[in-house]
């Protein structure tokens, strides 16, 4: 494991790199709004990706690196994420396809930036379709705007809602809530199988 800092328009971000022996792609994973990169589902996804021959970068947004708990505005999160993706793509993952992903808020960032960042696929862990109890404030359009293969891994009892499957988008439901920690093995299995399948045509 290697840790590297990346300058972004909104301060320094940090990436924790987990490299597979022979990487066929790289998966960039972002954390949730109030949590870090040690979330159980991110750890499970990292383990599965490395086993599937995919390098992983767990990305800490600048507000977390600076010690702030409140997340930055969406535009700042997106700009910082794209700066990290560009830097890592040049320095560490040259000529490899990039998969964007994350949990909760990090999944939203991955969806919003996938096109600009030229991601070949998007992994969403616990995508927050709407704030708890407020289905009228839907973020479904962020998911619907993604045009590359997408996997959503969602807890059956997630108070942030349940997205629909669609063209290019698969939905895996697991026991548990928004944390996805009730079935870490299920997260690993879903992520590993999906990565192997979507990357096969790119090998």
Automatic annotation (TrEMBL):
Keyword Hydrolase in record: yes
A Pfam family that the UniProt record links to this protein: Abhydrolase_11
Swiss-Prot/TrEMBL keywords: Hydrolase
Recorded GO MF terms: hydrolase activity
KANL3/Tex30 alpha/beta hydrolase-like domain mapped to chain residues: 24-182
Keyword Hydrolase annotated: yes
InterPro entries: AB_hydrolase_fold, KANL3/Tex30_Abhydrolase, NSL3/Tex30
PANTHER family reported for this sequence: TESTIS DEVELOPMENT PROTEIN PRTD, TESTIS-EXPRESSED PROTEIN 30
The name this protein goes by in its record: Alpha/beta hydrolase
Organism: Solihabitans fulvus
């Amino acid at each position: 494991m290697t840790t590297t800092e990346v300058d972004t328009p909104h301060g320094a971000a940090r990436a924790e790199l987990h490299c597979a022996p022979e990487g066929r792609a790289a998966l960039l994973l972002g954390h949730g709004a109030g949590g870090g990169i040690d979330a159980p589902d991110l750890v499970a996804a990292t383990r599965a990706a490395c086993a599937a021959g995919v390098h992983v970068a767990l990305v800490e947004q600048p507000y977390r690196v600076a010690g702030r708990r409140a997340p930055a505005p969406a535009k700042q999160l997106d700009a910082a994420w794209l700066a990290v993706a560009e830097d890592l793509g040049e320095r560490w993952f040259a000529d490899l396809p990039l998969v964007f992903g994350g949990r909760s808020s990090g999944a939203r960032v991955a969806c919003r930036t996938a096109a600009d960042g030229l991601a070949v696929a998007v992994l969403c862990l616990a995508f927050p379709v709407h704030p708890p109890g407020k289905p009228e404030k839907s973020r479904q359009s962020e998911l619907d705007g993604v045009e590359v293969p997408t996997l959503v891994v969602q807890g059956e009892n997630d108070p942030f809602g349940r997205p629909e499957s669609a063209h290019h988008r698969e939905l895996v439901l697991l026991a548990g809530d928004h944390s996805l920690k009730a079935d870490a093995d299920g997260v690993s299995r879903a992520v590993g199988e999906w990565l192997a399948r979507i990357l096969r045509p790119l090998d």
